[in-house]
Write a sequence for this structure.
């Protein structure tokens, strides 16, 4: 199996397939995990994303339940520690309108199995604690996935971009030349549909997002903290991450200091102690958006081509279940 893309989806699938004794070669235009997977905050938070019944909601909840075992197995396979915290999330409402909407949303979520409870939080109009939301450091996960894949015999071809996928899935043409195999998985995030000009796929697109981080004492923030489109979380190292923006700006990698200051201002309203700090790190990433909003996961009918892209803001969360679905489909096709 050839995999196009060495982000968290591509490498999770590579690791899972290799555990099933399927030889895998992964290609990437850059280094493994160098794009959206590196840039992500790492929230595993259906409570902040899902509020209606759908296959995507079901998948998110399954994947969240799989995460403790996923992290434990990956850490053991790689010999690397992974910063994973089932810390829950606090979502605040700052006025009566927001409080009423928060309660309506919580009721819809409760019917889906997303647990939350009312709490008092620093004089906010209303707040709810989402018991099951968690965080993971995606940079830890990517380092561990890379090592686990190599230990498992996965061939990793970094800085060797795929420029064409043969329409029947019998191989690819990369910068290094043609490579043949008995199947191809497209997992190249926002670049995915650009690899498939000879067969129809949902259009993938980059949705740029800025994030910032502060140097802070470990334990300053014991949970995810959210208000509308602003969130804060803290890594085990103490690094406190704030995000995010949502921009349709193509693949422009220019840091916009105006957006950085907007995120800093919003984060300081949520956690006033940040107002006196300057962000120690600022970066951006390209979330893999997709036409229709539903990830393309599965086999392209009539071919030996599979897809696993379009996870938008939830690639980190959905990696365990995506890799399971792809591995089951590939095995069934053998």
């Amino acid at each position: 199996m050839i995999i196009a893309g060495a982000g968290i989806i591509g490498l999770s699938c590579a690791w899972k397939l290799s555990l099933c004794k399927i030889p895998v070669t992964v290609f990437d235009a850059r280094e493994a995990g160098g794009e959206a997977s590196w840039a992500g905050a790492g929230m595993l938070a259906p409570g902040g994303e899902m509020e209606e019944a759908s296959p995507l909601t079901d998948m998110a909840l399954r994947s969240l339940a799989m995460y403790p075992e996923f992290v434990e197995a990956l850490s053991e396979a790689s010999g690397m520690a992974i910063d994973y915290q089932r810390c829950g999330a606090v979502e605040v409402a700052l006025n009566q309108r927001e409080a009423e909407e928060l309660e309506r949303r919580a009721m819809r979520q409760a019917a889906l199995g997303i647990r939350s409870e009312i709490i008092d939080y620093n004089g906010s109009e209303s707040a709810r604690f989402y018991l099951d939301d968690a965080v993971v450091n995606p940079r830890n996960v990517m380092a561990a996935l890379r090592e686990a894949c190599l230990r498992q015999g996965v061939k990793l071809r970094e800085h060797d971009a795929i420029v064409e996928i043969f329409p029947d899935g019998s191989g690819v043409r990369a910068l290094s030349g043609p490579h043949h195999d008995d199947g191809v998985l497209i997992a190249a995030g926002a670049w995915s549909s650009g690899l498939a000009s000879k067969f129809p796929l949902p259009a993938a697109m980059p949705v740029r997002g800025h994030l910032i981080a502060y140097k802070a004492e470990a334990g300053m923030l014991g949970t995810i903290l959210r208000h509308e489109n602003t969130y804060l979380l803290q890594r085990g190292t103490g690094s406190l991450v704030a995000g995010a923006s949502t921009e349709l700006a193509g693949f422009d990698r220019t840091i916009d200091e105006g957006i950085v200051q907007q995120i800093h201002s919003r984060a300081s309203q949520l956690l006033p102690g940040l107002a006196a700090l300057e962000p120690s790190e600022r970066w951006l990433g390209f979330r893999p958006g997709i036409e229709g909003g539903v990830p393309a996961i599965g086999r392209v009918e009539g071919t030996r081509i599979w897809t696993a892209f379009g996870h938008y803001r939830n690639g980190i969360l959905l990696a365990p279940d995506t890799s399971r679905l792809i591995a089951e489909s590939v095995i069934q096709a053998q």
About this structure: The mean pLDDT is 96.
